Amino acid sequence: MKKDTPEYERALDAVVDILRERARAGAAPLRYGDLSKELARRGHHVPAHEGPMPYLLEDASVRESPDGTLPLLSALVVLQETGRPSGGFFKLARRAPYKRPGDDTELWVKEIDRLARHFSVR
Fold first, then answer.
1. 30, pLDDT greater than 90
2. How many helices (H) and strands (E) does the chain have?
3. Residue 62 and residue 50: Cα distance in Å, rounded?
4. CA distances from 90 to 1, 41, 43, 55, 98 (A)
5. Average of pLDDT values for 62-80?
6. pTM (two decimals)
7. In whole angstroms, how far apart are CA 24 and each of 5, 76, 115, 120?
8. Which pLDDT score, from 0 to 100, does residue 4 have?
């Protein structure tokens, strides 16, 4: 699966839908493997830790918050080993236009809180 293809765009739509549903439900973050399984259930083969997964997660956050004002959906996806997002999430959160402050833990906790507030209002 390559970026900028119909297949990628359909998988990206599914990632956004899954993460929005999760945020609206106030559910705990999900592991990469669980996201991969849910995508497979919806007809998209996306391995948990290789291939397009990191790009899909970044693109889901960028799609939802292109100007950096809304919370980053990818905060909801965590590594099984640590229970926290991968380094790619923190790199995205610190670059323009997001520029989220704080150490990794503080940044992530604040982003989860922002997601909860954003989706509880809707």
1. yes
2. 5, 2
3. 20
4. 24, 28, 29, 14, 10
5. 96
6. 0.93
7. 28, 12, 9, 6
8. 87
